[in-house]
Amino acid sequence: MTYKAGSGHPGGSLSSADIMAVLYFGVMKHDPKNPKWEKRDRFFLSKGHACPVLYAALAEAGYFPKKHLATFRHLNSILQGHPHRLKTSGVEMSSGSLGQGLSIAAGMALGLKMDGNRLKVFCLMGDGELQEGQIWEAAMAAGHFKLNNLVGIVDYNNLQIDGSVEKVMGLAPLADKWRAFRWNVIEIDGHDVLQIKKAFIKAGQSKTKPTVIIARTVKGKGVSFMENQAGWHGRAPNKEEYMKAIAELNRRTV
Amino acid sequence: MSDLHLKKILELDSMKQQPTRFGYADALLDLGAKDKRVVVLDADLSKSTLTNRFAEKYPKRFFDIGIAEQNMLGMAGGLSLTGKIPFVTTYGVFLAGRAWDQIRTSICYADLNVKLAGAHGGLSVGPDGATHQALEEISIMRVLPNMKVIVPCDTHQARLATLEAAKISGPVYIRLGREPIPVITTNRTPFRFGEAQVMQQEKDVTIVACGLMVYLSLLAAQKLAKDGISCQVINLHTIKPIDRKAIIASAKKTGAVVTAEEHQLAGGMGSAVAEVLAQECPVTVEMVGVKDTFGESGQPWELMKKYHLMDGDIIKAAKKAVQRKK
Known about the structure:
The complex is a heterodimer of chains A (254) and B (326). Chain A has 254 residues and is of the alpha/beta class. Chain A has nine helices and seven strands, in the order H-H-E-H-H-E-H-E-E-E-H-H-E-H-E-H. Chain A has helices spanning 2-5, 10-27, 51-61, 101-114, 133-144, 165-169, 174-180, 193-203, 239-253, and strands spanning 42-45, 121-126, 150-156, 159-160, 163-164, 184-189, 211-216. In chain A, helix 2 packs across helix 8 and helix 4 runs parallel beside helix 5 (133-144). Chain B has 326 residues and is of the alpha/beta class. Chain B folds into two domains: 16-182, Rossmann fold, CATH 3.40.50; 194-325, Rossmann fold, CATH 3.40.50. Chain B is built from 13 helices and 14 strands. In chain B, the strands form three sheets. Chain B has a seven-stranded mixed beta sheet with strand order 3-2-4-5-7-6-12, sandwiched between helices. Chain B has a five-stranded mixed beta sheet with strand order 9-11-10-13-14, sandwiched between helices. Chain B has a two-stranded antiparallel sheet with strand order 1-8. Chains A and B meet through helix 4 and helix 5 of A and helix 4 and helix 6 of B.
């Protein structure tokens, strides 16, 4: 997608890919044939720049034909450079300005609870994004309103545009921060499918608190030359790089 | 004028006065009773914005989000996605200003059905001073695609505008005031969203105003009539979408327009009117408003005088406009 677009964010998309696969194909209740189904779980991509991984999941699930993936970021495409709910079937919310998704997810979780719904609300955040103050406003509110139907996931790949997260603006101790805001915290390897699945099951059992899954991930996961390279945050591969990356990813899925 | 409260506009001291936030609070109570989807959010200012009245009656549909405006906007967006109709309320500076990017991306770009009520609009906020006097919201809200902007002229109109906002799909911004201001319409004065209210049909000069300035414009028009200058007064309560037809029809008739607002001149209601006139009916325009400066502490009417927002200032502008068109 990013190769065809000539721009985009492969690094943070690859780091979330395993989480997204488990969510869309093993955890969430949803129906691609009926995207507005009232009884669906909701997913919000707060780190909007990782939309290639969301679009890939939605296309794979059947929300729209896969041929659209080649139009990502092109004029008149249904796949905008950052997600837009009015353009893409299956996209619950527009995002791209960082730090806003958790508030939307919290409002949604609150509304669902008011109506006696037992549906789940998931929100995927980047680690760099946690530097936004609004995230912590939302974290405080979700703890305060006891939104146990809300599950946040932090894609903790430890890289942002200007370098390592710890060097740019440190987050540690991250788990303690969430606990202090009255959240359950589950720490996992974000590329271990079993651990991811178990974490979501455990999150679903929370009685009074929202849950955050802190997923340790590798930016650019699965592509040797992209892994742990901040430079691959917002840069698309050229043809040669693309061929190499696809070959490596294909070997991994076999 | 038949649907106005008073046949004659009186000097300030003789007028019945009430803040527009009262009308907003009344409307929320009506909406609460009528429509279970209506929820209200506030950021620790419910006693001042008067959303506490809704909170007492409908505690399960009221959410105090604390002093966290950005999150409040996002949560309102999330609530709207579950079919609720959130009314988000706090002071205009903190609502429109502090949470502008949230309003832009999460509310307007996504076209969510969220209503915003910005209290403490204008200089007439008074002693709290510049930090709390919203003078820029009309500009920064009307520039956003999908946003609608309403500035009611008194408490009755604030009530009707709020009821109307609940029926409109998508984001709406309503500007409210802190200070009691003259009540010039009645409960029966119709409020038609997007349709300017022509209050006087005369011929020499048009005065387009919103909010408190509508009363002051009527007062000015009355005084101007004694000097032989007859005014058409337009209450432009809906600033976006703007009523081009009414503005152009009036400008064609009078050939001179004065705009009056309790807001920065740059980008505000007057600018919106001037944009229409410049493109479709270029006539002489004089603008009354805040001239690229912040406010300060003081009593509301002292500030209105100091910053040249009184009926006398409108009279001066009208005379100049009439002079210029000759």
